[in-house]
Amino acid sequence: MTNRIEFKNVSKCFGEVEALQGVNFHLGQNEVVGLLGDNGAGKSTLIKILTGYYQPTGGEIYFNGDPVEDLTVPRARELGVETVYQERALAELQTLWRNIFMGRELTTSFGFMNVKKMQAETHSLMTESMGFTSTAVTPNSAIQTFSGGEKQGVAIVRALYFDADIIILDEPTMGLSLKETRKLLNFVRGIKAAGKSAVFIDHNIFNVFSVADRVVVLDRGTVAGEFMTSEISLDDLMDKMYRIAETGSFEGEVDEGFSEGK
Amino acid sequence: MDNTQTIQPYKETFSIRRFARRNGTQIGIISVFFALWITFIVSAPNTFLSPMIYKAFMSTIPFFAIMAMPLTLAVIAGEIDLSFTSIMAMGMIIFILVYDATSNVWVAFLAALVTGLFAGFLNGILVVKLGIPSLVATIGTQFFWRGAVLVLSQGKSGTLVYTKESLLRPILVGKIGGELPMQMIWLIIITIAAWALLNRHRFGAHIYLIGDNENSANLMGINSGAVRIIVFSLIGVVSAFAGVIASLYVTYFWPSLGDGYLLRTLASVFLGGTSVFGGTGTILGTFIGAFIIGSIEAATVAVGLTGFWTKLIYGFIIVSSVAMHAFLRKRLK
Ligand SMILES: Nc1ncnc2c1ncn2[C@@H]1O[C@H](COP(=O)(O)OP(=O)(O)O)[C@@H](O)[C@H]1O
Ligand SMILES: [Mg+2]
């Protein structure tokens, strides 16, 4: 079966900074891939290339086996990609419904918006998916009044609303309570169960391990390795992650004592 | 998620407190409007109880209020334009040159609008493609277009009496029933169009979004550069239109046309509650703001102060309304 997405030798430079160097990456049909790596490893950069926000400096991108050049955000969406960005991509002063439909407002004709429909859809999302119960929050409430967890919920529900079959989640559990995190992990399992694919990024290795079919480890802009979660134990994966962080290689010798000035 | 099922229409229960919170700035500006109006009537009843003054307002305020509408869009998008006063004159000098060549006022009118569109487009390119802050870019083009007008006109004024023979003049600046100035009708049309664009069209939604958080808007696939270029172009074409009506009204062209409008137009937008930080603002606020600004000049004179006071008052209004937004923003953070 062809991969939903494939990166061949993809690089991305920001001026002097080489955020990605010759990365090969793929996302299979009905697969959940976990992306791990330290801060600055290039995880978000990889995601933003995939969603069409950044143009890669080099390399090729394939969707369903077909090469795609000049990928843009709207084009990636047409190809079925929905994203929860690490920075959430919300507009604080705007209403909830304007945030949910940001960039793809429902229109009637000549680009005029169907405001009533968007408010109604938002209201049903609030009660059914976001679990808002307070009557103080309405589709016309500005996002700036929401708590961190609620904002994250908006970003997640927005990505799920549009019924995409590739869902990208960049550190979605950031700012979530334990209960909300569990709900989110179940969401990701639901994506898998529905026959869709997902890329899941999280700092918490337990979360990644519990939902991913495969884990890809990024280190300073390169793929350091990948593991099937069915073939490695959580302990082994943690040990490997630790070696990577310490030595830059899975096989490196780790000094078990406390070293100074490392 | 199943999007095909029919969704219950959403009806929000009305709450006065919520209404007041959401429309705070608009309620504020309307209150200021009535407070000032009563003050004017009390301090100069002879002037402000006669219909004469209101007729005068309807003839003169539209000249700058028309431009305040697209300028509001730019400020909401987080930009500013200081070149529109020169674009007014630039459109008008092209009007005259094209009329001299073709003897057709309609072609001349069209040429003026196209000139404005081009000048606005150029501002957009400087800001979006070259990344020059709009404050600097449009100060530059303000001088550039004013310079071009002076060169093309040789600094000379000129009569436009020939426009009296055409239908263009009554359409733009005639009086309906000898009373209601056409420029007021144009102001109302442009106000409604700007309102619909901003509040009911997806383009307006994108204006708010990029002024609020451009990075988010871009991540969600909005082409913020294109939105900005269109907004600057709109200011350009509307300014050229305002230049034509202001000149045809007096059937006269003068090379410093537009000079007095910069402060008034900006003050209308900021007094109207549009935030200099972007992301918020309303067309209704600007409309009322323009009428307050327009009446201040008449009021200062009627109250017995000299005209020198008006600039001071405009300046005070700009600084205090911008400062108020800075204060509110700090408190929210
Ligand atoms: N827009 C940008 N401009 C310049 N450098 C960037 C930009 N985005 C990311 N980087 C750099 O690229 C590297 C990878 O960043 P990122 O992809 O955000 O890492 P991660 O998501 O794994 O923490 C970092 O060194 C970061 O500083
Ligand atoms: Mg990141």
Describe this structure in words.
- Chain A is globular.
- Chain A has helices spanning 43-50, 73-78, 96-100, 115-130, 148-161, 178-193, 205-211, 234-247, and strands at 5-14, 17-27, 32-36, 58-63, 66-67, 81-84, 166-170, 197-201, 214-219, 222-228.
- Chain A has two domains: 5-80 and 164-261, P-loop containing nucleotide triphosphate hydrolases (Rossmann fold); 92-163, no CATH class.
- With 262 residues, chain A is an alpha/beta fold.
- Chain B has a domain at 49-257.
- Helices cover 74% and strands 2% of the residues of chain B.
- Chain B is built from 14 helices and four strands.
- Adenosine-5'-diphosphate is lined by residues 14, 17, 19, 37, 39-45 of chain A.
Shape of chain A: globular
* Count of domains of chain A: 2
Average pLDDT for all residues of chain A = 90
Q: What's the CATH first level of the largest domain in chain A?
A: Alpha Beta
Q: Which keywords apply here?
A:
heterodimer, A: 262 residues, alpha/beta, Rossmann fold, 2 domains, 10 strands, B: 333 residues, mainly alpha, 4 strands, binds adenosine-5'-diphosphate, binds magnesium ion
